[in-house]
Design brief:
By secondary structure, this protein is an alpha+beta fold. It is built from 6 helices and 4 strands. Strand 2 and strand 3 form a beta hairpin.
């Protein structure tokens, strides 16, 4: 099992590798996850200012409507764990280093694909959301 420190080291190493051109790596990874992104309603919030506020408002509205909400925001202010939330709660060190998260990603990329920080921050919330909603509930959203 990977420790939290090892998971952070893996993510930091990927961040140092820079960008990876093309979509081959992320497509292969999403296929490994049964193309979970095709099964979830996803809201992408873009722009210069106000993304955090809009995300917080939308998450609150969606949770009040009875939906589960996974959310990725960047940059982290206090801890790397705060960028990934599920129903308003930060991912924990144990969850991030569980076999279903970064160790799974590290094993996948050890096979043949290149990894980048962007791929990690795309994978973690989708994977986290997937194993938090193991009951198969479709009443979910990802911000």
């Amino acid at each position: 099992m990977m420790t939290y420190e090892q998971a952070c080291a893996f993510a930091n190493q990927a961040a140092k590798s820079g960008s990876i051109l093309g979509l081959d790596s992320i497509r292969a990874l999403m296929a490994e996850l049964s193309d979970v992104q095709e099964k979830l309603p996803i809201i992408h919030i873009a722009g210069t200012n106000g993304k955090g506020s809009v995300g917080a408002y939308l998450a609150s509205i969606l949770r009040e409507a009875g939906l589960h909400v996974a959310r990725y925001t960047s940059p982290a202010v206090f801890t790397p764990l705060e960028v990934f939330t599920y129903d308003g709660e930060n991912i924990t060190e144990t969850e991030l280093s569980s076999p279903k998260m970064l160790p799974l990603l590290a094993a996948f990329f050890a096979k043949s694909h290149a990894c980048s920080y962007v791929i990690i921050v795309t994978f973690v919330p989708l994977s986290y959301h997937g194993f938090r909603c193991a009951d198969g509930s479709r009443r979910s959203s990802y911000l």
